[in-house]
Amino acid sequence: MSATASRPGRSEGATARGAERFARPLLLAFLLAAAVDLAGLLAGLDTVHLVAKPLLMPLLAGYAAVRGGPRLLVVALLFGWGGDVFLLADNDLAFLLGMGSFALGHVCYLTLFGRDRDRDGDRARASLVTAIAYVLVLAVFLVLIWSDLPAELRVPVAGYSVLLTAMAWRAGVLGRYAAAGGALFLLSDALIATGIAEWPRLPAPDFWVMLTYIAAQLLLALGVLGAGARARAASPALTP
Fold this sequence. Notes:
single chain; mainly alpha
């Protein structure tokens, strides 16, 4: 390889390293926004929540982007941002639009997880035992909550729940962080559903919804980024 041909590679590497300088500030900004949002919910300060919540996913998406994360991860997080914004409005249309935005994010995650391959080049397989457990939990939950949901929301909630459960199960192919993130996402949305069904709830219910949701998105992002870093480390270095 000639010296002239090698320059673009070095330039791209320098650009990537320069972008990564912003990774820590973006992650710290995300964690700060999360802390402010959660504190606002505990204190009952709705204005704080209205300001802090829309900042969360753009900051996390920015962190994923400068870390060299796959485009689908960034898009999934931005669909999460769309869902966050829609759910700030308290009406059925906003709820459906928010659920739709989150559903598109789950499709991105599922596509991303489906691309993962094991060391032999085959597609990584999520645990069958985990799949059975998730299916049982989903079935029991839907049976219990069905009659308490508003009639117009039953089918959309059921369809969304199937997609979310598939994402949570499939996240296990990327390791413990992503698997925990998928499970927490399922828990967070289950807490929302119980609120819609007017079941008894924990004190400060919005705090627990946001805590599990924030942790879920962060763990999913870290799981994807970690898998990407491991794949790059395992790839043979290019020789001139």
